[in-house]
Specification:
It is built from two helices and 14 strands, in the order E-E-H-E-E-E-E-E-E-H-E-E-E-E-E-E. With 178 residues, the chain is mainly beta. A seven-stranded antiparallel beta sheet has the order 5-4-8-11-12-7-6. It has a three-stranded antiparallel beta sheet with strand order 3-13-14, with no helix packed on it. A two-stranded antiparallel ribbon has the order 1-2. A hairpin with a 6-residue loop joins strand 4 and strand 5. The protein is globular and about 50 Å long.
């Protein structure tokens, strides 16, 4: 069952398509039925030694040849400029017990890395030591879509450990069932 309001008209490629206006809360609840992994994306800032990190669950594998990943960032994010084309970044895939870490990087803070064990890769990008997996990337290209910036990254290096991922489902953190 879907919740829709009055139809509006949109024109695409010289044909008229009926588009429904959605109840945004119901759409969000529906999209929340798709379980996603939770990541912390890290990069460097404009100032020397500045480290930036944000929690994101909008991450996806895109291509193996070439090795590309995709994630998105809200256009209103204060970290938006740090993810310009050509910049290096890392995707740190979180382990099932790292929900507090995910929340630390989801909230505004002067130092999101306080108390977080990490190391810098050769490009100076922070890699979180306790992450389940890490993908070291370079921004291949970006594109604005709706209220987000789509970021396609080329994977330059990666590492992984054994463990279970942290999941986001129905608006909250979850774990895989055994």
């Amino acid at each position: 069952m879907t919740t829709m309001n009055a139809p509006t008209t949109a024109i695409r490629s010289e044909e008229t398509v009926e588009v429904q206006a959605f109840d945004s809360r119901e759409l969000r609840n529906t999209l929340g039925l798709f379980a996603t992994g939770v990541t912390i994306v890290t990069t460097t800032g404009a100032e020397a030694g500045e480290m930036i990190g944000i929690t994101a669950n909008s991450f996806s594998s895109l291509s193996l040849d070439p090795p590309l990943i995709l994630w998105s960032l809200a256009l209103k994010s204060p970290s938006l400029s740090a993810f310009a084309e050509g910049r290096d970044f890392a995707v740190n895939i979180l382990e099932h017990q790292q929900d507090a870490l995910a929340m630390q990087f989801a909230r505004p803070s002067d130092d999101k890395f306080a108390g977080v064990s990490h190391r810098l890769n050769s490009a100076g990008v922070p890699l979180l030591d306790a992450a389940l997996a890490q993908l070291e990337c370079q921004v291949e290209f970006t594109r604005v879509a709706g209220d987000h910036l789509l970021i396609v990254g080329r994977v330059l290096a990666f590492s992984k450990a054994d463990g279970e991922p942290l999941l986001f489902y129905k608006g909250g953190f979850q774990q895989l069932c055994a």
